[in-house]
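Structure first, sequence second, as always.
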């Protein structure tokens, strides 16, 4: 085996980091290993739980009788939605859905996990379920009554809108002009009338003529 005969493994997409190709590349001189130290030496490698020569946490954890590691205390649950099963054309009416079938169809990775069916999505198929561990409440309702959600009439609530107020009709410009003039005239103070002359019906007394002197003859 020689260097030119080596081939990259399948699935590797990123290019290999080329080290020691000059300072202009940003990976020259110390080739990104830093200046001296434990990690700068060739062949230097540290175990995953190495903590700088102090006792690792794995050794510090008490391991009394009945001790269980944390991942054994967690249940590995695989979740499958009814909507995903409904969209899968390979699942037809009358079929029995089991862990083995779900694995073959690619919905779960292994049959050694706890499978829980959730009610997300529409459900219209009539099938049976076998060796499935858990069902959500919504999933149980949909399985018992398929297509209940999709066939149910949708309730529409009518919102009563208040009647729109009609805008007052625009007056003709000529009418508006006349109204304005009338208002101006009304605002002006009324003109003062001259007092009426009193009519005199009584006639002035007529002057009597002086009585004539009569002379008696002797």
């Amino acid at each position: 085996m020689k260097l030119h005969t080596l081939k990259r493994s399948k699935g590797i997409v990123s290019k290999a980091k080329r080290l020691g190709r000059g300072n202009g590349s940003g990976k020259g001189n110390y080739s990104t290993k830093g200046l001296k130290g434990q990690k700068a030496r060739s062949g230097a490698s540290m175990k995953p739980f190495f903590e700088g020569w102090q006792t690792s946490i794995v050794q510090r954890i008490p391991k009394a009788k009945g001790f269980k590691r944390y991942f054994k205390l967690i249940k590995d649950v695989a979740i499958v939605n009814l909507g995903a099963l409904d969209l899968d054309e390979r699942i037809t009416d009358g079929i029995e859905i089991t862990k083995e079938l779900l694995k073959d169809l690619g919905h779960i990775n292994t049959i050694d996990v706890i499978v829980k069916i959730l009610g997300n999505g529409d459900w219209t198929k009539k099938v049976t379920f076998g060796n499935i561990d858990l069902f959500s409440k919504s999933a149980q309702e949909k399985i018992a009554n398929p297509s209940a959600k999709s066939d149910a009439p949708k309730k529409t609530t009518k919102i009563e809108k208040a009647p729109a107020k009609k805008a007052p009709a625009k007056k003709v410009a000529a009418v508006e002009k006349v109204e304005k003039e009338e208002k101006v005239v009304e605002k002006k103070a009324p003109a003062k009338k001259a007092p009426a002359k009193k009519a005199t019906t009584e006639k002035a007394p007529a002057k009597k003529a002086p009585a004539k002197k009569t002379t008696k003859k002797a």
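Margin note: The helical segments are 57-60, 70-73, 82-87, 99-105, 137-144, 148-151, 173-187.
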